[in-house]
Amino acid sequence: MRHQSPECKLVVAPWTSTGWSCSVLHLDCAQRQIAGARQDIEDVLALVERQILTKLVLRNCVALVIPDILCQLNKLRGIETVNSTLVEWPMTAALTSSLHPFMVSVHFRDTNLTASNFAGLLHTDLPPRMATIGFMMSNISALPDDVGDLWAGRFTHRFRMEQTLIGHLPPSLGRLRIKHLWLTRNRLLKELPDDAFMNASFERVWLSGSALQRLPRSIGHTLKLREVFAEHTDVENLPPWLQQWHEQHVSNGHVLVSLFGSAYCTRPDRQSTLCATDMGTAELSGSID
Question: DSSP string spanning 189-244?
Fold first, then answer.
């Protein structure tokens, strides 16, 4: 291609290229003076070499609609929305196993949306490598009750809801094979379903900065668990699983756990090692990968 957009953050240049030879595209609606309507986005993506694009970032879109051309971007590995309002992600632009075999992650950062806006993700045929979904600084307030049934077995690494308006997590989330669970800074989230994660096998559980009043009765198998943070929460009591896990590992230093700033740390009988240091986990995660 003779011309490259400054929105292309990683340029590759095969000799046969006739479109933008762009592997990572940051499409900025404000810079382009578009709202993010279906045709707005489609017109830009039509200029890109579809077999080259691996990551798509859509930012500053006041009325974003994911276009059907997404189904032609077969090499995509990641999609992210930033500082936008998602109006619709229709099923006609769905991420699927056959059309997006390399897709790994979807992130909504500083994005206004509701579960009814992203039908293109709420189905049972997600890409087989799909490992991460994240909602960060979003006004999303609920997930469908059957979300775990739809996504069962797909997410094998990370699930993040950070600084959202979520007040309830559907028990079906326990069907996801999550290793890293981030639920930080959710000011309306007061509890987790007691039995939802009884079959889980987490490596990290970050709950800090949320309104949690108690931890669930079960967190599943703790053999691989290495981090538990519930800093700056209203949690006052330790469930048996946390006490046992902490006692087993406190001497070897191979695990990290802190309830610094929680209601538990005001108790006279608190374990001082759980309250000694603010690990900073009530802040938003810096990385979204």
Answer: -----TTTTTT-B-SEEE-TTS--SS--S--B--TT--EEE-TTS---S--HHHHH
Q: How far apart are CA 109 and CA 53, in angstroms?
A: 21
pLDDT band at 261; cut points 50, 70, 90: very high
pLDDT at position 1 over 50: no
| Residue from 68, 63, 95, 69 nearest 81 by CA | 63
Which residues, in sequence order, are CB contacts of 235 under 8 Å at separation 6+?
212, 213, 214, 215, 259, 262, 263, 264
Distance CA 11, CA 52 (A): 9
Q: Which residues contact 106 (CB under 8 A, 6 or more apart)?
A: 78, 79, 80, 95, 121, 130, 132, 133, 134
Whether the Cβ atoms of residue 11 and residue 4 lie closer than 8 Å to each other: yes
Q: Supply φ then ψ for residue 162, to 5 degrees.
A: -125, 125
Say if residues 233 and 227 touch (Cβ distance below 8 Å). Answer: no
pLDDT digits (tens, 9 = 90+) for 102-116: 999 999 999 999 999
Cα-based angle 281, 26, 164 (whole degrees, multiple of 5): 35
Distance of CA 178 to CAs 94, 98, 134, 155, 164, Å?
A: 22, 23, 12, 6, 19
If phi over 0 gives left and psi between -120 and 50 gives alpha, with beta otherwise, what is residue 232?
Answer: left
| Residue 35: C-alpha distances to residues 42, 47, 66 (Å) | 12, 18, 12
Pick from 117, 139, 132: which is nearest to 178 by CA? 132
Residue 250: predicted pLDDT: 77
Query: What tokens were used for 280?
Result: 């900073």
**pTM recorded for the entire structure:** 0.91
